[in-house]
L-ascorbate oxidase (Paspalum notatum var. saurae), 563 residues
Amino acid sequence: MPPSSPRWPLLLAAAVLWCSSLLAAAPSAAAKVHHHTWDIEYQYKSLDCFRKLAVTINGEAPGPTIRATRGDTVVVTVRNNLGTENTGIHWHGIRQIGSPWADGTVGVTQCPILPGETFTYRFVVDRAGTYLYHAHYGMQRVAGLDGMIVVSEPDGVVEPFAYDQEHTVLLMDWWNTSVYEQAVGLASDPLVFVTEPQSLLINGRGRSNYCSPAAPLPTLFTAAPGKTYRLRIGSLTSLSSLSFQIEGHSMTVVEADGHYVKPFVVRTLFLYSGETYSVLLKADQDPSRNYWAASNVVGRKRQTPSGLAILSYAAGNDPPRAPPTEQQPVPPAWDDVAPRKEQSRAIVAHPDHAVPAPPAADRTLLLLNTQNRIDNHLRWAINGVSLRFPATPYLVSMKRGLRGAYEQRPPADAYDYRGYDISSPPTANGTVASAVYRLALGSVVDVVLQNAAMPNGKNETHPWHLHGHDFWVLGYGDGKFDPERDTGRFNLRDPVMKNTVPLYPMGWTAVRFVADNPGVWLFHCHIEAHVYMGMGVVFEEGVDRVARLPTSIMGCGRSRGLP
Ligand SMILES: *[C@@H]1O[C@H](CO)[C@@H](O)[C@H](O)[C@H]1NC(C)=O
Ligand SMILES: *[C@@H]1O[C@H](CO)[C@@H](O)[C@H](O)[C@H]1NC(C)=O
Ligand SMILES: *[C@@H]1O[C@H](CO)[C@@H](O)[C@H](O)[C@H]1NC(C)=O
Ligand SMILES: [Cu+2]
């Protein structure tokens, strides 16, 4: 389907006007520039009682929280002191409008930052909300190069909820093995999977089976009775989907991936890797005792101890770090997918902050998610194509017309959705390619992710993350997506915008976005092992409109020596 008529640009213009009326509240003269200099190096860390190498930022793992106000510019100078390892840092949820070379995706938007080299990221944070950053080179995120970004509204701009104080809560999973042990295992024949994590971290601290029972627990925060707290919660797990609970307290979800949502109350919040939420928590329980905060694996058979921290009350009887006398909260059953789907369906736009979705798509991509056998190895493949980044970053090769630098043949827009049996293990072999979907600038694109049985008959949840954009979440369904039947059932009334969305076992997820950000953008499963095994696609849009590229992103493959 070729991109059609200029029907959408009119709506787009209306949305831009609407947005700029909001922006008018923030005088740009007040915008600040925040400079950070980060030394990236390996250090021994005992985040969960097991001492191992972690990638640190100025000695910290996870790294510091970046704080800014909407409209500000963030400048991060990264010095790679890893000695023998490349790096690159992605600013997760920041759309990089006008700065596509600062997305930090090695192989897509830049060459790797070599050991001993310094690279400067410079970008505008154009929307308030809770975002993340993390390594985007190989499986390096497994080693802990990550953190959070908090973008506040300028003074005088009122959010659709109120609170007294805020805290960040970064959730991770953690292994006793290195990035290399994991990556080499995945590429081996027979494949050696990464195993379940040894621990779950809350703000960088956790308890593996290596801990003595007396090891102290981290404090989530100390509450003052009666006050309301905003918790900005993000998941940067490498493998696990999580539940998060705070014993005795309910949480009101008010923000998802930087967008205000119609508030809803949960006892258990489910999070997929790459997602962020703001929840409001009222300190309305008995202040004399402490409470458990717990994260647990869901969606995979649970073999990892709970991630634990303590919520205490100021001037309570229990010492702040004393384990609560009560039992830990009972986590949801790992294989009960119904409440997770229910939460996904509950996330809709806040009525006063909804950005209307365009009414129809110019192009629809139907993307089959499974593993295929390729040269006798199992790799994740999308419509039979397993993504491998070329030696030259796409942004450079496309902007400079280096045609031989990547696969010229585009991948298929759809799999054989009439003939394919999603409940049977795949029989076809796949291919490895660096192919790209080229999208018409300004066109409206629907992507329907279709989950299907894996060769081993298992099923998994995949969190899909889009760079450079937010998408409207139009719907989730069980079984096989049927364009004739299901397109008409999309939620166009109040779809939320997000940048990361789960694809549930044996189901489909539909999203819509406008290809209006000139650049080259990765769309991929946020599980490190999966994207490492090819689970992603690349979108190009309006690359000819991208301003002159900084030479600092070049230097590898065929971009070596380009002026
Ligand atoms: C990592 O932990 C697992 C159990 O959780 C254990 O079987 C394995 O031997 C450990 N590996 C190392 C390198 O300590
Ligand atoms: C897939 O590849 C294997 C060899 O790697 C071959 O034996 C088999 O016939 C191929 N299957 C199909 C359906 O082409
Ligand atoms: C997914 O796998 C789990 C256990 O491995 C099983 O209980 C469940 O029925 C499966 N779900 C689907 C939709 O196949
Ligand atoms: Cu995945």
